[in-house]
Amino acid sequence: MFWKFDLHTVSQVEKLLERDDVTLKELLDEDDVLQECKAQNQRLLLFLTQDSSLQELISLIIHEPPSDREEKLRYKYANTACELLTCDVSAINDKVGGDDSLLNTLYTFLEQDPPLNPLLASFFSKTFGNLIARKTEQTISFLRKKEGFIALVLKHMDTSAMMDLLLRLISCVEPSGLRHDVLIWLDKEKLIQSLIEFIQPQTDNERQANASQALCDIIRLSRDQVGQQEASDADPLLATLELQQTVECLLKNMFEGEKRDICIVSGTQVLLALLETRKSGVELIDPGSQTLDQLYSVNNSILLGIEPYLKHYRHLLLEPPTMCSMLTSLGVLEEPFGNTRLHACRLMAALLHTRAPRMHRELCQLDMINLLLDLFFKFTWNNFLHVQMEHCVSAILDQTPPCDPVDDEPDLEHTHSHPDTAHTSYGDAEMFSHQDLLSHGRGGMRKGYMGHLTRIANAVVQSVEKGAAQGFITQLINGLPEDYRGRWQKFVDETLAETNKRNAVDLVFSDYQIQQMTANFVDQFGFNDDEFGNTMESMQRSVGWAESGLIWWMKE
Fold first, then answer.
1. Same domain, 316 and 413
2. Are residues 407 and 466 in the same domain?
3. Tell me, what DSSP letter sits at residue 75?
4. What are the 10-residue block averages of pLDDT along the chain, 556 residues in total?
5. pTM for the complete prediction?
6. I want to staple 222 with a disulfide (CB 3.0 to 4.6 A). Which of 38, 78, 235, 316 is the partner?
7. Which structural domain, as residue segments, surrounds residue 543?
């Protein structure tokens, strides 16, 4: 039997291309033009790769559309033009990447006065980024011939698309030899120093935020690239970022002169990225199983740059920027903790995780641990703060005490070389003996930090039973005043044990409860009897998964 109907359909794009006077915008009006381009429609590609067509496509993405068009359709042509230019069709990439006149037309977008249209900037960045990835040598050669290219990009740093373009230059250039040449070029152009200069009180918020994010991404991208290459030269951008003078310049901008929240937060985010020790692509089931090749060592020059400015962070925690009161579900919060102080706490936790004795001594001399503990209890409902305090205690308890080179025993005569551990042990005893912390046992409202406090207490107990500094911490606790030791032991034996037991209770559903949940599920989603019979087994598995998941959540 033969079909009587011809099911072959000709696309509207093909019909348009049959006309000699077809225009580019007529093609852009068709919904399937992008799909036809990706499908390598030769007639369409022949039309699009004409010099006049490519010039018009580029013009659409770098010039403002007419203002008389309906708002939702104003950028339709620009968007479609950008999609065609970046759809990874080699004929288009080869033509644009190999023609300096087309590249010059595209480049003129950077030469405009700020501010740039953010949507057009994203089209421009995406198009140039595609050329950097697909026609690397030609595009890099073109950009390096443009004197002042980096200065122009930085001039528009208030637009996030410019940050994306910089990161493309750092991450999308292959092979590695060419990439290293690009990094040397960017370093000679003082890219890092220019971005650092944006992080100061006089700079607008958008530029500061984009500069900070760019620096953080450069740090992570550079470390990942170095880690992926067996033998490679040092990354010049990362080396510049890790210089002591670079870190000091950043902190000087943040703290010397007028102090602004956005400046301190943006700068601290860069410091946190510099202090990251875990490789971004590593996932470990057991945190204690990490090996040295899974960690980055923090360059000592970074710590030397931070150390003189720790007193400024202490002053920030004691006298934070003025903030307006905040309405919360528990009432009016007269003194919000604030994002600025939270970033200061994050930095303290990161510094403790570096395991640098000199830095730890400085933190202890500033009494930073007790200050953080005071804030922990003062801001009862700020769980972001409580998490950072938990990280601090975890880092301190995980420290290996100093050992004598002869007998390899803890050097108790020089306890102050690791005073954080001593301070935290005393601090924990004070925390767990404070009567207000046990209010949940007397029927009052449970404090917002109690979950974190329980985890901290369990960490201390586990450190006494086993851990890097087991004997050291045990001796410190035994050296506490008798009253403190008694209250601590009572807390561990009674309150903490009861809390752990309550959190470890397994949930067990009866058959009747499972049937009720199943019936509710069927009622809600409308299974008929046959469908229900076919899916009963899978539903029972789902209930089992839900039950085990809930048990895990409660244990956590």
1. no
2. yes
3. T
4. 50 84 89 90 92 94 86 87 93 93 95 94 96 94 93 94 93 90 95 96 93 96 74 82 96 90 96 80 37 62 95 93 74 82 95 88 91 91 92 83 40 37 40 40 65 87 78 80 85 88 71 69 56 47 39 35
5. 0.80
6. 235
7. 511-555
